[in-house]
Amino acid sequence: MSLVAHIPDPEQLSALMAGLSAFSAVVVVSWPYVFRNTLAERMKKVEGERERIRQRERARLEAGKSKVSLRVEPKRLFQAIVDRFNLAKQAEDGEIVRKLSMAGYRGHAPVTTFLAVRLIAPVAIFIAALLYLLIIVRPEAPLILVVAMAAGIGSFGYFAPAIFIKNRITKRQQAIRRSWPEALDLLLITVESGMGIESAFRKVGEEIGAQSPEIAEEVLLTTAELSYLQDRRQAFENLGQRTGVEGVRAVVTSLIQAEKYGTPLGQALRVMAQENRDMRMSEAEKRAAALPPKLTVPMIIFFLPVLFAVIITPAAIQIMSM
């Protein structure tokens, strides 16, 4: 009798099942409204933030580009000095223009400024050195010797602009070497995706600008030259001459060969990207290996005297007290 009493009534069982079914249906229908899936919203926010960052970086690059133009007119003072002393003939050989372009200065205005500053700097430094010696130092030496010393100091002004340009070239080449493998990877992806070389260069210039403005500038300038130069080989050669980097020249050679013979470019770009990456690593290892010899002289000059003083001073004090 007890077992029979615990058996549920079929009507109650069916009512219970119907209630559970109704409750499950209500939960299923109301679940998306009560517990919203925020994954899609988060993905949409991330995508929007990524697009905003990209637009901001592109706007920053465009603002930087607007400050640089090949049609900037030189200052009237510099132009008057160049015209008065007929200094324009010094730039006819193209060596000054080539070095300025390697430093990132292009157009007529940087050439005029360089020639004028190279003429003005010795005079300005001579006058400043002469006034410093006569007014502040006041040496006992004769006036002719003081003037000769000021002239020797002023002669440095003639070489100062060239030293500055050389320093700019070195820093620019280092920046290009540091990011050139990544630019080659982007170029490889765009070429293998089916883009033409002009579209690939344009895409690389737009995407690499946030990491390396120097490479972006050179690549976009090459894209412009490819669009209007009759000989596309000249545009590639100009890229190698403007940068002066061996890795860029190797890529230029491969591009010229692919343009001339129709050879596949993807494998060559992949190999050269790896080679440039290995060169960058070997250069870093070389600098790390050269660090201990460079630290030897400072340690001898600054560390050893202090060490000797710490070791010898107590013994000297004890000897003096005895």
TrEMBL record:
Pfam families assigned: T2SSF
Entry membrane topology: Multi-pass membrane protein
Is-annotated flag, keyword Transmembrane helix?
yes
Q: Which InterPro entries match?
A: T2SS_GspF_dom (IPR018076)
| Designated name of the protein | Type II secretion system F family protein
- The keyword NAD appears for this protein: no
* Compartment list: Cell membrane
The record, for PANTHER family, names: INTEGRAL MEMBRANE PROTEIN-RELATED, PILUS ASSEMBLE PROTEIN
Membrane-spanning regions, if any? 12-35, 115-137, 143-165, 295-317
Q: Start and end of every Type II secretion system protein GspF domain? A: 184-312
Q: Which UniProt keywords apply?
A: Cell membrane, Membrane, Transmembrane, Transmembrane helix
This chain's source organism reads: Sinorhizobium garamanticum
